[in-house]
Amino acid sequence: MSLIELSPAELITWHSPELRLWTATSSHGYLGMVEKDAELYRATDAHGRFLGTFVTLEEAKRSVASPPVSAFAGRSGESVLPRMLPEPQKDQLVARIAIVAAAVSATVAAGFAVFGVAVLSLTW
Fold first, then answer.
1. What is the pLDDT of residues 23-74, one digit of tens each?
2. Which one has a higher pLDDT value, 72 or 11?
3. CA angle 64, 92, 68 (to 5 degrees)
4. Whether residues 24 and 70 fall in one domain
5. Together in a domain, 90 and 41
6. Strand residue runs (E) in the chain
7. Across the chain, which distance is largest between two alpha carbons, in Å?
8. CB 44, CB 37: distance < 8 Å
9. Contact between 31 and 12 (Cβ < 8 Å)
10. Residue 106 and residue 53 share a domain
11. Are the C-beta atoms of 36 and 57 separated by less than 8 Å?
12. Which residues of 54-91 are buried (b: 16+ CB within 10 A; e: fewer)?
C-alpha cells in the first residue's frame, strides 16, 4: 500500500454525486468520501477505512483531505484514538471487544468439539 502525501497547495476537488454524499479527488486520484448519517458526518479514506464521525461537514472534509499516516497514528505520530473516543469509552470498547472475542472463541471451540464427535461417530 502506498501513501498519498499531499502538499498544502494540492488542489482537492469535492463532488456531491448524491444528496448527503461528498467525494474528494486530487491529481493522485480518489481520496475518500463523506456521508451525512442523521445529523453527523462519517468520513472514510480512499481505502474505505473509517476516519471518524464529525459534527460539521467541514471537519469531515478536513479529515479526508489530511488522513492519518496509519490507522492509529496521526501525521505527527500521535494517536488518533483519543480524538475519536474519550478514555472511558475506549476502555468500555476494549472490554466489550474482549468479551466478544472470548465468546467467539468458545463458540468456535464448541463447534469443533461437536464437529469432531460427529466425524468420529461417522468413521466408527
1. 999 888 999 999 998 889 999 998 888 999 999 999 999 999 886 554 444 4
2. 11
3. 20
4. yes
5. no
6. 13-18, 21-26, 29-37, 40-45, 50-54
7. 73
8. no
9. yes
10. no
11. yes
12. beeeeebbebbbebbeeeeeeeeeeebeeeeeeeeeee
Q: Match 481520496 to its residue by C-alpha cell.
A: 31
Give the domain range for residue 41. Answer: 1-82
Task: Kindly give the pairing relationship between strand 50-54 and strand 13-18.
Answer: unpaired
pTM tops 0.70, yes or no: no
Given pLDDT bands bounded at 50, 70 and 90, which one contains residue 105? Answer: confident
Please give the grid coordinates belonging to residue 50: 473509517
* SS3 at position 79: strand
The answer on 124 and 77 residing in a single domain is no
pLDDT of residue 25: 93
